[in-house]
Amino acid sequence: MEQIDQRVRDERMWGMFCHLSAFAMFIIPFGSIIGPLIIWSMKKDEFPFVNEQGKAALNFHISMIIYMIISAILILIVVGILLLIALGIFQLIMIIIASIKANNGESFQYPLSMTFIH
């Protein structure tokens, strides 16, 4: 019984790390993709919940990079600056919410996320 409880806690913890590892974006370029990719690659076969949450995190952060590239282009017409600020704040909030939900064992699907990894 205790071993099952430990496995559930581990699965939730690694699911949370899939989301939190996106904060690597503050250390390395494309860290928001590289961090979740490493954790997802290591644990996806061991824990189904990590597989699901890792895909969600990767899809979201790939989508965010695309949105930010578009916003950077829109800086030419000024509106891009506001979009970049809004996207940055949105991304930080979503990472925190997803991490908390994953730690509670709840599946989280990011809003505005395109599906690249099935």
Q: Would you mind describing this structure in some detail?
A:
- This protein is mostly helical and 118 residues long.
- It has one domain.
- 70% of the residues lie in helices and 0% in strands.
- The chain contains 4 helices and no strands.
- Helix 1 packs antiparallel against helix 4 (79-103) and helix 3 (48-73) runs antiparallel to helix 4 (79-103).
- 31% of the residues are buried.
**What's the pLDDT, averaged over the residues?**
94
Distance between the termini: 33 Å
Structural class: mainly alpha
- Main beta sheet: none
**How many E strands?**
0
Brief digest:
This protein has helices spanning 2-20, 31-43, 48-73, 79-103. By secondary structure, the chain is mainly α. It starts with a helix and ends in a 15-residue tail after the last helix.
Q: Can you tag this structure with a few keywords?
A:
single chain, 118 residues, mainly alpha, 70% helix
Secondary structure elements and their pairing?
Elements: H1 2-20, H2 31-43, H3 48-73, H4 79-103
Helix pairs in contact: 1-2, 1-3, 1-4, 2-3, 3-4
